[in-house]
Amino acid sequence: MERAELKASLDALSPEELVELGYVKLETYEHVTKEFVGTFSELIDILTSWSKNVLVKANESKNSNTIIFAKHYMANLKDLVGHKLSQLRPNEEHPDV
């Protein structure tokens, strides 16, 4: 799926649907990055873009549970990225993400 198609698909979903999809996407991306190391940076770009979109949609929805989840998800995205980078490059120092 092209990035534009992915963005259009995500933009069409409600905040609640995005939150539900987020769990699936996160698990999928963790699995994919183990097999396709070369695509890791692109997946991180998509995850970052997606998580920002979730936060925007959550704030628009005024749904406090969705907003709390989106903020929590974005805070943990940095930890996920750092962890994956350390797995991919165990002997190198990685910059703060």
The percentage of residues in β strands lies in under 5%
The run of helices and strands is HHHH
The computed structural class is mainly alpha
Number of domain units: 1
The amount of helix comes to: over 70%
* Span between termini: 26 Å
Give me the Rg, rounded. 14 Å
Mean pLDDT equals: 62
Largest sheet: none
Would you count the extended β strands for me?
0
Number of helices: 4
Shape: flat
**Which stretches are poorly predicted, pLDDT < 50 over at least 5 residues?**
23-38
Question: Describe it for me?
Answer:
This protein has 97 residues and is mostly helical. It is built from 4 helices and no strands. The longest helix has 25 residues. The radius of gyration is 14 Å and the shape is flat. 12% of the residues are buried. About 16% of the residues have low confidence.
Using brief descriptors, characterize the structure shown:
97 residues; mainly alpha
Strand and helix map with partners:
Blueprint: H1 3-11, H2 15-35, H3 40-61, H4 64-88
Q: Can you summarize this structure?
A:
The chain is mostly helical and 97 residues long.
